[in-house]
Design brief:
Order of helices and strands: HHHHHEHHEH
CATH superfamily: EF-hand
Structural class: mainly alpha
Largest sheet: 2 strands, antiparallel
Oligomer: single chain
Number of helices: 8
Strand order of the largest sheet: 1-2
CATH class: Mainly Alpha
Helix content: 55-70%
CATH topology: Recoverin, domain 1
Number of domains: 1
Shape: globular
Radius of gyration: 15 Å
């Protein structure tokens, strides 16, 4: 497992711990879903509901795979074990990626504009300069947009334990 993947997962755990109690629980995913859907300017109720459902499935997958003692909480160590095992988590990551990208494309043209991308990523908790570096790494077009498929693939790569030197690494590195 690559160090870069561990760094990425550690960052996401910290961001998903939305209530700041040091572990993941259902409340974190409800809070995160509410923050992200609130930032989805122009998105319809269907896309918002899909995102909320993806957050719910994310939690349910973690709980089913990792919560052996049934306490309703996931630690960082437990989280790393699950999300860095693609065979256990790939479907959940795909659903999440597609739902998030759909929020970023409210007009359905297949392109995500920088302002909405930035708003959604800030709602998750990523830092502005890192978000800009990520968007730039995705290779925006002349109208400062990226393809929905590019963002979906970028999210999937972010969770891949064997990937390094990917655009998502900009989210965990210091931006100069």
């Amino acid at each position: 497992m690559r160090t870069e993947a561990i760094d990425r997962v550690t960052l996401v755990f910290t961001l998903f711990d939305a209530n700041g109690n040091g572990h993941l629980d259902p409340e974190d995913f409800e809070l995160m879903a509410s923050r992200v859907t609130a930032a989805a300017e122009g998105s319809g109720e269907g896309a918002r509901a899909r995102m909320a459902a993806a957050f719910q499935r994310y939690w349910e997958t973690l709980e089913a795979e990792l919560d052996a003692d049934g306490d309703g909480r996931i630690t960082l160590e437990e989280y790393r074990a699950c999300v860095l095992a693609p065979e256990r988590f790939a479907g959940t990551v795909r659903e999440f990626a597609e739902a998030l990208a759909a929020l970023g494309d409210p007009d359905g043209d297949g392109a995500i504009e920088r302002p909405l991308f930035t708003a959604l990523m800030r709602a998750i908790g990523f830092a502005g300069p890192n978000i800009d570096a990520l968007f730039d790494a995705f290779g925006p077009d002349a109208e400062d947009r990226i393809a929905v498929a590019t963002w979906v693939a970028g999210i999937e790569d972010f969770y891949a334990p064997d990937k390094a030197g990917i655009p998502g690494d900009h989210l965990v590195s210091a931006v100069v």
